[in-house]
Amino acid sequence: MKLKIIELEKSKIRLSLEGEGHTFMNALTEEILTDPEVDVAKYVIEFQFSDPELFVTMKKGSQKDPVTVIREACDRISGRCDDLLGCLKN
Description:
Elements: E1 3-9, E2 12-17, H1 22-32, E3 38-44, E4 53-58, H2 66-89
Antiparallel strand pairs: 1-2, 2-4, 3-4
Helix pairs in contact: 1-2
């Protein structure tokens, strides 16, 4: 997966995720929103075959940066997938 950072500030980020679709983006935004320091997490796919853009902003006074929040959300998703695969092997 290729990422292109379009905008990065202390409390917000906008990036493009090459080749991803609604399935991954829905899971990612929902997981990002579980963090209590996140204010907004949304994505847009402008055209049917265009790459999605993810937009994340943090609440005022948040100690976390949006890149860390995205990484943590991806780690949680990956962990759940590993757990599922482990259950299927048994």
